[in-house]
Design goal:
mainly alpha, single chain, two-stranded antiparallel sheet, 76% helix
Length: 456
């Protein structure tokens, strides 16, 4: 097996194990900790931490420790969040949410940088186009990574499925589900009450063990990569402030200023699915024990489409895929506004989550590739910007989640999607107009000559 592919698989399975735990926990936060909005507040705080860390930490940590050890340290922050859920309260969930947020931006920036470097290096070795190999590597990664939602949610559904059989949900409650949910009913009903503490501890024990395995896998089997820029210690010292501010300096590029809406919309739509669809549609109309099964459908389609898009993009180009994602989400936002969820329509809950995953796979694969290709010489700063603006989308969406009606959130989502595609279209126009333009060579000088090699 070629070395670069082996490393891509190690990263992919490490993230699979880590997000089997975190993805399952995130899907349950809004339903499991409904009291005083603790679950949604924890998620909002978490992405507030991501927002702060995106501003400064990724370029500094990646330059200081390299991609491998940045990933290892950041993964430990996710394990801490799992531990904080054992005794969930404002004093445990909020601090561990902040810690996870601080680790999330460096984790994803290091992962994106690592895959981009591996793809470009392999492309040079075999004489292929760099963006095509990078696209394939991101497709492989997201095929494996997105399946974490299948396993994480399957585990939670099987564990919580051991609760006594739920009674039929009263029609009065169903009237307040879906787009008409304004969070007026705060008392737990038969469908939304928490499972027993023993089952919760069982689930958290499984999730924590999965996170620990992820840390060990990366630490023991992932080969580090070394930047040419890091060979000179003197250069490191002299470029500290440049590295610190590189995230913001890259915003001088007009294309990046337009593209900030892409990761922001990604944050909005993921936050809606994790915080609102699971609570206002699935948990409200079917019960909390169905949340995992519905999210499995989302994760499965997301995973399969991720690798499919990685291959299709070579033939269709990214514009066609972005068009597919936009039309799909537009259609289902309108459908969710009109739909009145009812237990008798069980299949519809899975259709919505599955097709949401079809569109989400576009944003997750193509956004990362787009940033990596357009800002190849400033990868760390570009991906830090990506996580910063995605985190802002999460923070805003989770922030208003506790006091806005669901239909208002859907209208907001619709508006953000429209603006996002308009801005993306302008970027594509600029790229078509200047196909040979240089890739922001003046922004962060230390990264200009960053050709990388795998350390033996």
């Amino acid at each position: 097996m070629e070395r670069s592919l082996k490393n891509v698989l190690v990263v992919s399975f490490g993230f699979l194990l880590l997000f089997t735990a975190y993805g399952g926990l995130q899907s349950l936060q809004s339903s499991l900790y409904r009291e005083e909005g603790l679950g949604v507040t924890a998620l909002s705080t978490l992405y507030g931490g991501v927002l702060l860390s995106s501003m400064f930490l990724p370029p500094l940590l990646i330059k200081k420790f390299g991609c491998k050890w940045t990933i290892v340290v950041s993964m430990c922050c996710y394990v801490a969040f799992s531990l904080g859920n054992f005794y969930a309260s404002w004093y445990t969930l909020i601090p561990t949410s902040i810690l996870l947020g601080l680790g999330a931006a460096p984790l994803w920036s290091a992962q994106c940088t690592y895959l981009t470097i591996m793809g470009n290096t392999e492309a040079k070795n075999v004489g292929k186009v760099g963006r095509d190999v990078v696209n394939q590597y991101f497709g492989i990664f997201f095929l494996i990574f997105q399946s974490s939602g299948v396993w994480g949610n399957l585990i939670s559904s099987l564990v919580f499925g051991q609760t006594p059989t739920q009674e039929a949900i009263p029609e009065e409650q169903l009237l307040s589900c879906g787009a008409s949910d304004c969070l007026m009913a705060t008392a737990p009903t038969n469908s939304t009450q928490r499972p027993s503490q023993t089952l919760i501890y069982t689930l958290l024990g499984i999730y924590t063990g999965s996170g620990v395995l992820a840390v060990l896998l990366i630490a023991l089997f992932l080969e580090p990569i070394k930047d040419a820029q890091q060979k000179s210690e003197g250069e490191k010292k002299s470029s500290f402030w440049s590295t610190l501010l590189s995230t913001f300096k890259l915003l001088r590029d007009k294309r990046l200023r337009l593209l900030v809406l892409l990761p922001m919309y990604s944050g909005f739509e993921q936050a809606f699915l994790a915080g609102d669809y699971t609570r206002s549609y699935t948990s409200c109309a079917l019960g909390i024990h169905f949340v995992g099964y519905v999210m499995i459908c989302f994760s499965a389609t997301n995973s399969l489409c991720s690798v499919l898009y990685g291959r299709l993009s070579q033939y269709t180009g990214r514009k066609a895929l972005y068009g597919l994602g936009a039309v799909t989400h537009l259609s289902f936002i309108v459908a969710l506004l009109l739909w009145k969820p009812h237990p008798d329509q069980l299949a519809v809950f899975f259709v919505f989550s599955g097709l949401w995953g079809v569109a989400d796979a576009v944003w997750q694969t193509q956004n990362n590739v787009l940033y990596g290709v357009l800002f190849e010489k400033n990868k760390e700063a570009a991906f830090a910007n990506y996580r910063l603006w995605e985190a802002l989308g999460f923070v805003i969406a989770f922030g208003y989640s506790t006091f806005l009606c669901t239909y208002i959130k859907l209208y907001i989502l619709l508006g953000v999607l429209s603006l996002t595609m308009l801005a993306y279209g302008i970027v594509e126009y600029l790229e078509a107009k200047n196909p040979g333009r240089p890739v922001v060579a003046e922004q962060t000088k230390p990264t200009e000559e960053a050709e990388t090699e795998t350390v033996m």
